[in-house]
Design goal:
Blueprint lengths: L12 H32 L16 H34 L8 E8 L2 E6 L12 E4 L1 E5 L4 E7 L4 E5 L4 E5 L5 E5 L5 E7 L12 E6 L1 H20 L1
Bound molecules: copper (II) ion.
Length: about 230
């Protein structure tokens, strides 16, 4: 359902959406069930004539089961949510794809811009052909990336909605994570943590390119990088 509004652009986007749908369905069911019971009781026992209100303590067994039964059923639903959440969490946050198939990219956040350091043609960071760019991240489709996320000042949050990815950037720490794009195109990067007055002015763009287009982009950048390093 979510993909109707926002494309799924990473290998794990569908499982994150599945989890959101599961939570929505279970919580939605109990929301409607409790609201239905509530409205039914209001109409069924509304004031008629001069009948006196009953004082119901809720201590009697046949009364308290109105609370205990739904309570236990909701706990059973929670077990399903926890199992689903743990699986997705381990996949997205606890594991990293294997190198060298996965390429590293450095993401530096600051008030109020992103710096993306691309590995360049050799696929390795901290070499002469690295390509630093402001607010523009260029990646290849169907290739896993390991990001090294840091912040120069305050808390930021690297968010790519089509990947269903959000990761806080914490000053003083380098946080690693991963993504693998599955569609090509130009999409939004947002900062998802209020990080000061310019927070709303901290958007970036991600360009997901075919291998040929990505190589062409790298070739185009080479002279600038060389110029920057020889200055
Ligand atoms: Cu920010």
């Amino acid at each position: 359902m979510i993909e109707y509004f926002l494309e799924q652009g990473s290998t794990y986007a569908a499982s994150v959406d599945g989890l959101v749908n599961l939570i929505g369905a279970l919580v939605g069911f109990w929301f409607l069930a409790s609201l239905g019971a509530f409205l039914y009781l209001i109409f069924r026992f509304r004031k008629k004539g001069n009948s006196k209100a009953q004082y119901v303590t809720g201590y009697e067994k046949h009364e308290s089961r109105w609370v205990h039964w739904p309570h236990h059923l909701i706990l059973v639903c929670d077990v399903f949510i926890v199992i689903g959440a743990v699986q997705v969490w381990i996949d997205v946050k606890q594991t990293l794809p294997e190198e060298p198939r996965a390429e590293r990219v450095r993401i530096i956040s600051q008030q109020w811009a992103w710096t993306f350091v691309h590995a360049g043609p050799d696929g390795k960071l901290d070499t002469a052909d690295d390509i630093p760019m402001i607010d523009e991240l260029h990646v290849e489709v169907n290739k896993p990336y390991i990001y090294e996320l840091s912040s120069l000042d305050v808390l930021h949050d690297f968010s790519v909605p089509i990947f269903r990815l959000k990761q806080d950037a914490v000053p003083g720490r380098v946080i690693t994570g991963w993504f693998e794009p599955t569609i090509t195109g130009e999409y939004d990067i947002q900062c998802a943590e209020i990080c000061g007055i310019g927070h709303g002015l901290m958007p970036g763009r991600i360009f997901i390119e075919s291998p040929q287009k990505h190589a062409a982009w790298q070739a185009q950048q080479a002279p600038t990088t060389l110029a920057a390093t020889t200055q």
